[in-house]
């Protein structure tokens, strides 16, 4: 007989889904997020997310920078209740200037929504984030946005995903016309056409008309050539396309595809309904004691993100923890795997969740924000019961490199302290030249903004003004086998050797082409784009 707690856990796991959105700037991530909240009933009028963002940031000094630039550096977690299920959106920043946090958030997500602009298709940042998803084989749901504007051919967009990402596609709905002639989508689940109504910016949920495929009205509403074109395409995808295979979706090999227009609210509800049915529920997670099922009664979770200085007066750091098993309760005492110490989880952070003020309990698939300064590092496991540790979150290949200089020797101590603390917090990776005569730390980031944040915080929190000297590299690879393997490889051209914070050798290249050349010359030298945190 299962215990009451086991029954409760099973029920709560069944009604939870979480995801992160992967996209390139401008594809419409902020807009889609807002519309999902609108349909999820978490907000009643679109526009609230932006307003809320500025409200929250008004309390924090260094985030003023974020406001000035009108972008989001830090990611939040949004939860809403839809059809009696809790949907957690692990909100990642969508700006070009993204940081390692964007990657780390994907380590906590069970599903990803790949958002594309229908006029552009796959774009560079989306491809990079997709690679991170592929490492964990998480299910990818594709939302092709901005159908109300001129687009590329829908079939061509599917083909691009198949050819370039190696995913098979299953269009769950299919557009009738695009751009000026966008009339709606055909939902293959219900075999009905949802007609699109042009509304300006859609602040409220849309009420479109829905017709059966065979309804004689359709031919009156749609131009004949448009209707025939749509029917031809539909026939093509239904005859030649693959059937929906949820096992393939869950293995990250097939992506369900949706067409819509987030700005005008079109297709958002159809997407949500299918997402709820097709997405993975919280799944077992790999740990040092094997896979831990979410219904395991003992609580466990891991830290995937630290957010510093939400309130600069208190120098606080919020640790975002993905709950993996058991039930979280406020004030519970857990074991901290890295230090072996007991930690009381006494100040759970309130998250954006339908006006909920404090967080008293949470279940697998949820994210909690813990306010324990200094206690946590990225990748830390907390648990109750027999000791376990979840797989760490790796370091990801940085793409921007710069020497960080401290022009004022009297500030050396503060400089060193600041650099160490920001590194521990995961704000940026720190490397050093293999040439011992060069002592300045090398900042290694995945986005430009990380540099600015580090410099800003060093000045404001540690009182050190710094200078950056950019380095001409864009690719980093860790050498498998360490220094020994590197020595064996002999002399390398067109690369610089540095060491990471753990003294491991990393090769820096000017571009991918140079890296491929080195790999072609030295097939025995194994290079990795990520490395474990130790
Ligand atoms: P991001 O977070 O991915 O960077 O994108 P964001 O939602 O900010 O959207 C980028 C731009 O694309 C915005 O226009 C937004 O209104 C527009 N957009 C989003 N979804 C759609 C859509 O379905 N159709 C059309 N036509 N446009 C869409 P903007 O001019 O930058 O801002 P705004 O003045 O509209 O707020």
Q: Helical segment tally?
A: 15
The third-level CATH topology of the largest domain is: Rossmann fold
Strand content: 25-35%
> Widest sheet: strand order?
27-24-26-25-29-30-28-31
- Strand tally, please? 32
The CATH H-level homologous superfamily of the largest domain: P-loop containing nucleotide triphosphate hydrolases
* Ligand set: guanosine-5',3'-tetraphosphate
- What is the correct CATH architecture of the largest domain? 3-Layer(aba) Sandwich
- By CATH reckoning, the class of the largest domain would read Alpha Beta
**Coarse structural class:** alpha+beta
Largest sheet: 8 strands, antiparallel
| Average pLDDT | 87
Shape: globular
Helical fraction:
25-40%
**Which parts are unreliable, with pLDDT below 50 for 5 consecutive residues or more?**
51-63, 65-75, 353-357
The rounded Rg comes to: 25 Å
Distance between the termini: 41 Å
Can you tell me the number of structural domains?
A: 3
């Amino acid at each position: 007989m299962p215990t009451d707690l086991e029954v409760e856990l099973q029920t709560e796991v069944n009604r939870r889904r979480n995801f992160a959105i992967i996209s390139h700037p401008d594809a419409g991530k902020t807009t889609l997020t807002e519309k999902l909240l609108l349909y999820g009933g978490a907000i009643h009028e679109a526009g609230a997310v932006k307003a809320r963002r500025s409200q929250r940031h008004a309390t924090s000094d260094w985030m003023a920078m974020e406001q000035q630039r009108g972008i989001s550096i830090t990611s939040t977690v949004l939860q809403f209740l839809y059809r009696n299920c809790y949907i957690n959106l692990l909100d990642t920043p969508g700006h070009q200037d993204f940081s390692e946090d964007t990657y780390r958030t994907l380590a906590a997500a069970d599903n990803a929504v790949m958002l594309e602009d229908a006029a552009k298709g796959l774009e560079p940042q989306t491809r990079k984030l997709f690679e991170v998803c592929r490492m964990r084989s998480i299910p990818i749901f594709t939302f092709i946005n901005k159908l109300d504007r001129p687009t590329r051919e829908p079939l061509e967009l599917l083909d691009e995903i198949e050819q370039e990402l190696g995913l098979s596609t299953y269009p769950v709905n299919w557009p009738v016309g695009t751009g000026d002639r966008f009339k709606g989508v055909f939902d293959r689940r219900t075999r009905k056409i949802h007609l699109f109504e042009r509304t300006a910016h859609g602040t409220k949920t849309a009420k479109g008309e829905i017709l059966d495929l065979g309804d004689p009205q359709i031919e009156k509403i749609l131009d004949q050539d448009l209707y025939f074109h749509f029917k031809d395409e539909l026939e093509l995808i239904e005859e030649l396309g693959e059937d929906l295979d949820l096992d393939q979706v869950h293995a990250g090999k097939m992506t369900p595809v949706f067409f819509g227009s987030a700005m005008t609210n079109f297709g958002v509800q159809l997407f949500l309904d299918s997402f709820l049915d097709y997405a993975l529920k919280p799944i077992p997670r790999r740990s040092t004691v094997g896979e831990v099922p979410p219904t395991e009664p003992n609580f466990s979770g891991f830290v995937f993100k630290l957010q510093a200085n939400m309130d600069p007066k208190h120098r606080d750091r919020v640790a975002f923890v993905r709950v993996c098993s058991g039930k979280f309760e406020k004030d519970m005492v857990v074991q901290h795997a890295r230090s072996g110490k007991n930690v009381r989880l006494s100040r759970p952070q309130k998250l954006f969740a339908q006006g909920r003020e404090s967080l008293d309990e949470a279940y697998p698939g949820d994210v909690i924000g813990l306010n324990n300064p200094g206690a946590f590092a990225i990748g830390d496991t907390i648990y109750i019961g027999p000791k376990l540790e979840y797989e760490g979150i790796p370091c990801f290949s940085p793409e921007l490199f710069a020497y960080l200089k401290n022009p004022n020797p009297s500030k050396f101590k503060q400089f060193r302290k600041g650099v160490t603390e920001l590194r521990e917090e995961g704000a940026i990776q720190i490397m050093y030249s293999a040439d011992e005569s060069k002592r300045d730390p090398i900042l290694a980031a995945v986005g430009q903004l990380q540099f600015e944040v580090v410099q800003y915080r060093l000045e404001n929190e540690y009182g050190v003004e710094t200078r950056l000297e950019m380095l001409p590299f864009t690719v980093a690879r860790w050498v498998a086998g360490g220094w020994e393997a590197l020595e064996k490889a002999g002399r390398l051209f067109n690369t610089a050797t540095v060491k990471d914070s753990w003294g491991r050798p990393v090769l820096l290249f000017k571009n991918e082409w140079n890296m491929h050349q080195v790999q072609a010359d030295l097939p025995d030298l194994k290079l990795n784009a990520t490395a474990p945190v130790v």
